[in-house]
Amino acid sequence: MGGAPRDGQRKIQNNLSEGSSDSLASTPFHRSALLGQPVMANTVASEQPTQDGEPTPKAFGTTRYWDERYMRDKEPFDWYARYDALEGLIEAQAAGKDVEVLHLGCGTSRLGEALCGAGYKYVMNIDISRACVIAQLERYASGPHRNNKFMHGNACALEFPDESFDLVIAKATLDVIRCGKGAEGNVHAVCREVSRVLRPGGRFLVVSHADDWEEVLEAVSERDAGDARRAFGWTLERAKVPKPQTDPRHPDGAVLHVYIATRDDPEDERPSLAALKGVGQKVSSLAALGALRPLANAPA
């Protein structure tokens, strides 16, 4: 991934110690940990490169690193934004609440719990770390939301039938993959798998620090058909949402980039993000959006 996309990768790496709305992010251990779907690797965390005593971005691309992390700390933790900051956006993208949701790279996030609590029909949370999945299963063994499920799995090779989900959410997940070994091939594999398991009209919601994912998707789709619509069967839009401010080192006005990929369905009548601008309280989390525009590789 050469050229401009490298700028986005550097931005992701610079933000690996930020992005959480949880006060735990102020501790060195949590600053060094980013929830997500890591790339498969065979080295242990202690063997990873470090800088100032903390793992470099490459360390996040190992399964054993995440297993060690979750064996040491099983407490719930959400990166980038909690559900309440994304609620309006998610509600706008879902075709009602009678939908089935796939949460990629769940870590110890409470997103699935929040979605089920809000009335969504079913949430399947997956992560590459067995330790993390075990921790979540233990936490929710006697919980009220039996439709909040957890499963060990790899986002690059999903173990679900075609057209199984209405909404797929990846919060920080693709950022982690992009910083790992074999990033281009793994990003391509995730996009291919998400397109496969989405039902027609289903949507893939990506929350990221990077503002150049359209260029990355163009690069990874060249091996197939030359543009993301033809390669993955979806159209793309991008929006910005205010980033929760918990770190005094960074000024107000920072944003997270949210990418919406809609699997092609001629009968889908849900509005685009641009059409939702200014709708009101129902999508109040969109009120502070910056410029809304289609991605460069979306059809006119």
Blueprint of the fold:
Elements: H1 5-14, H2 28-31, E1 50-51, E2 54-55, H3 63-72, H4 83-93, E3 100-104, H5 111-117, E4 122-127, H6 130-139, E5 148-152, E6 165-171, H7 173-179, H8 183-197, E7 198-208, H9 213-221, H10 228-232, E8 234-242, E9 255-263, H11 273-276, E10 293-294
Helix pairs in contact: 3-6, 7-8, 8-9
Descriptive overview:
The chain is an alpha/beta fold and 300 residues long. It has a single domain (83-294), classed as Rossmann fold, CATH 3.40.50. The protein is built from 11 helices and 10 strands. The chain has helices at residues 5-14, 28-31, 63-72, 83-93, 111-117, 130-139, 173-179, 183-197, 213-221, 228-232, 273-276, and strands at residues 50-51, 54-55, 100-104, 122-127, 148-152, 165-171, 198-208, 234-242, 255-263, 293-294. The strands form 2 sheets. It has an 8-stranded mixed sheet, sandwiched between helices. A two-stranded antiparallel ribbon has the order 1-2. α3 runs parallel beside α6 (130-139) and α8 packs across α9. The longest helix is centred in the middle third of the chain and has 15 residues, at 183-197. The two termini are 25 Å apart. Mean pLDDT is 71; it is low at 1-5, 16-53 and 274-300.
Q: How many domains in all?
A: 1
Strands of the largest sheet, in order across it?
5-4-3-6-7-9-8-10
Instruction: Just give the CATH class.
Output: Alpha Beta
CATH homolog superfamily: Vaccinia Virus protein VP39
Task: Classify the helix fraction into a percent range.
Answer: 25-40%
Q: Please, what is the average pLDDT? A: 71
Report the total helices.
11
Low-confidence stretches are 1-5, 16-53, 274-300
Main pleated sheet: 8 strands, mixed
**Structural Rg:** 18 Å
